[in-house]
Specification:
With about 475 residues, the chain is α+β, with helices and mostly antiparallel strands. It is built from 13 helices and 19 strands. The strands form three sheets. Strands 4, 5, 6, 12, 13, 14, 15, 16 and 17 form a nine-stranded mixed beta sheet that branches. Strands 1, 2, 8, 9, 10, 11, 18 and 19 form an eight-stranded mixed beta sheet that branches. A two-stranded antiparallel sheet has the order 3-7.
């Protein structure tokens, strides 16, 4: 469990909940409300003579949940100063477009990411517990809900898969239980899976709200501004890394408006943009390639939707294998036919505001941010197969709805890259978490921070090193 310790004279309460009813201006101006997530590249000319210089111990490129939690962990557990820079603002990318899972039900024991996921979930639960111990409601502060998760199947084959998954999860130390269709109906009365269906219940799984959580993390980070230990540079894209004339070591991040010197480390945590950004940042090293691809997703959010009520977070078992379906789209994504292959699986959660969040789609189509109405309709129809009450509701303008678009940072071997870049030992990568950025964030932040500080890591970092991962380089 994560605990808070401070080298300053400030108390825990003043750090975590400084003026909790009115967040700092940087939070209210930078963390956007849950709307369609769009990130566009901007080309800006700059003059090196006009750039403002600032000095820090660590510079983090990327203000998603990974970058912000790395900054937070360093601030809480060291005396280092940290700067965060981003081409946009927090929650502009995959962080703000996600469903908020802190789940283990769909993860597989004995894989490389399992221990990282276990550690991260422990840290999230510790953070929620600390919030509660301070007399605050984790639901209000983080959007925290410990609802448990249900992994759902509707056939005999899926029933057998779920029973085996319960066995494996239980052997790995998790509380897990198989529910037949009759028991499942008692748990979720509005869910329909047929007589051959069932579910794997993991009662300790949780969810949070990305916007609330990011606001909270930013609030913590900003309490260090007065000490000169924290600075934010948003809407200020990174342009290149500057190297020392003496030894060639990376010494600064040059952005459009600033030169951010890093005495100890630079961290690149820019999600789906990390691969292309690296090519710009380290142009002299053409051999360095990180094959991160944006995997576009749609989520449908129905605000204050009262036609159904959920007691758990739900996910069909096909989500694990990313079931593939083919649909027609009128939008030209400028991608090959194979890249247009689409996966849609039913996921459903209800957040602390009572909004119904339905998903989800996966699609390789570059950095397109266009809403594909045919995909939204597929998500709605798929949900209707599990919730008959939805079939009587028309998905039209009368519903107060939003569509979230995000780009999951996909790597071909299915696990993130966390650790230093070869030949640049003070430059660290933290990217490629695909759809698990929120759930893996705190353990990733801890691992990167421990690497920078020279501390032993709680989770073996070797499986996440870029060394030997991709045959095209390194």
């Amino acid at each position: 469990m994560e605990s808070f310790s401070f080298s300053t004279t400030s108390s825990l309460q003043s750090r975590l909940f400084l003026n909790p009813l009115r967040p700092p201006r940087s939070i209210s101006s930078s963390v956007r409300s849950p709307t369609i997530q769009i990130r566009r590249k901007r080309s800006r000319s700059f003059s090196p003579l006009a750039l403002h210089r600032s000095d820090h111990d660590v510079v983090v490129v990327g203000a998603g949940i990974i970058g912000l939690t790395i900054a937070r962990h360093l601030l809480l557990n060291s005396d280092l100063s940290v700067a965060v820079t981003d081409a946009r603002v927090p929650c502009s990318g995959a962080t703000g477009a996600g469903q908020g899972y802190i789940w283990m039900a769909h993860k597989t024991p004995d894989t490389d990411t399992w221990n990282l996921a276990v550690r991260s979930k422990d840290l999230w639960e510790g953070l929620a517990a600390d919030v509660e111990r301070e007399g605050y409601d984790p639901a209000e502060i983080l959007g925290w809900k410990k609802t448990g998760s249900l992994l759902i199947g509707r056939s005999r084959e899926e029933q057998a898969m779920l029973q085996e998954r319960v066995k494996v999860l239980s052997e790995a130390g998790l509380r897990a239980k198989y529910l037949n269709s009759n028991v499942l109906h008692l748990e979720e009365p509005e869910l329909e899976v047929g007589t051959e269906g069932g579910a794997a219940l993991v009662p300790d799984d949780c969810q949070l709200d990305a916007y609330k959580t990011v606001s909270f993390i930013e609030k913590i980070n900003n309490t260090y501004c007065l000490e000169g230990r924290y600075a934010e540079f948003f809407n200020d894209p990174a342009v290149c890394l500057l190297r020392s004339d003496k030894n060639g070591a990376v010494e600064a991040v040059q952005t459009s408006n600033h030169t951010l010197y890093a005495r100890k480390a630079v961290v690149v945590a820019t999600g789906a943009w990390t691969g292309s950004l690296l090519q710009n940042l380290v142009k002299p090293n053409s051999a360095l390639q990180l094959p991160v691809r944006p995997r576009k997703g749609h989520l449908l959010v129905l605000e204050n939707f009262r036609n159904i009520r959920l007691n758990h977070g739900l996910m069909e078992v096909g989500y694990i294998g990313h079931q593939t379906t083919t649909i027609q789209s009128d939008i030209n994504f400028e991608a090959s036919e194979s890249d247009q292959e689409l996966s849609i699986s039913m996921t459903a959660t209800q957040d602390v505001m009572g909004n119904l969040v339905l998903g989800s789609s996966r699609q390789f189509c570059g950095f397109s941010t266009e809403i594909d109405e045919s995909i939204v309709e597929c998500i709605w129809n798929r949900a209707g197969e599990f919730f008959p009450n939805l079939k009587s509701v028309s998905l039209d303008s009368s519903l107060n709805q939003q569509v979230r678009i995000g780009h999951r940072p996909y790597l071909p071997d299915g696990k993130p890259v966390i650790g230093p870049i070869p030949d640049m030992p003070n430059v660290f990568l933290a990217a490629g978490h695909e759809g698990s950025g929120l759930s893996l964030a705190l353990a990733t932040a801890e691992m990167v921070s421990d690497m920078i500080l020279g501390n032993p890591t709680n989770v073996d970092p070797m499986p996440f090193s870029i060394h030997g991962r991709f045959s095209s380089n390194l």
